[in-house]
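Hallway conversation turned thread

IA: we were arguing at lunch whether anyone had actually written out Phage late control protein Gpd end to end. Turns out nobody had. So, for the record, here is the sequence (346 residues) and right after it the structure tokens. Reply here if something looks off.
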Amino acid sequence: MGSVANYKIKLNGTDFSSDLIGAVEGVTVEDEINLPAMFSIKLNMVDSKNGKWRGIDLKSFKPGDKIDLSMGLDKVEPMLSGEITSLELNLASHSILEIRGYDLLHKLRMGTRNKVFTKKKDSEIASEIAKEHGLTVQADDTKTIYPYVFQNNVSNYEFLLKRAAYLDYEVYVEDKKLFFVKSRSAKAAALPDFTYRKDFEELTLELRTLTRGSTVVIRGWDVKEKKEVEATAKKGDEVTKMDGKESGFDVSSKAFQESPVAAWVENLIDLSEAQNAAKAAYNSLLKEFITGQGKCYGNPLVRAGKSVKLLGMDERFSGSYYIVSTIHNVDKSGYMTIFRVKRTGI
């Protein structure tokens, strides 16, 4: 007997009624590194039994209502906890109400701020921002204490994302906890191995010559020592080659000339900050070496931020890949998962 596509939906902590579950025609969850995770629930609006429209009275559903979604084949796994942000009514021969929303990371997008953070680390700034939005925080210690950091008329989300990019950190939310952590791409594969034609049916991969970043030079003015500082990241500073024998820059430099980049950073604290910034930029650019997209039968464990070993291809392309986004969709056709991946070596 084959597995059955399944999902569970809670509205404000209570399971969907049997009437609402019966009206659901599709459920989708999308997640991507450094973006709020999104959900969509498609509901048949026609309530023929009661002779009225279903779900559009702003009592059944309204912006701000909490949604908890679980999906799976037979057994379900928690996928997303968020809130409704929009309702789309589609009146036609087959009328559909689409309920959309995001996890709580979307709260950081609301409004802009002009603010100065004094004598704080980025991890402490992340904690302060999380508290402002009613979230707890898990932040990897960023060590460097800045005399001041300006947030200049941008949202908390844009501001925190820029700080994260400088460090090669990631920002995401699980339920009511904000994570501000080092890129998870270096972690070992967290999922069972995926083999072609057994666990996935489709996969497209692209290996691209890396034209920027074979060495990264960060220069700036050390405000403490009052002198110029310089730090370089190059071969040997890879956080991970993801089971590859050679990094993307190793492969690219065999056929093409070196591709160094340099940047000037205002108000550098010290050499340590410059070194961290150089390594972060180097590893961020390296992630563009191999990119791809695959499709498999629905698997709720395949999520952005996890690694998986893709097997059954040529030895050089088989190995660990970092999942950067997924789309999970359950409808009358069943449950399918689309995933995008990156790899730094081969």
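OS: looked through it. The longest helix spans residues 271-286.
IA: good, adding that to the notes. DSSP finds five helices and 23 strands in the chain.
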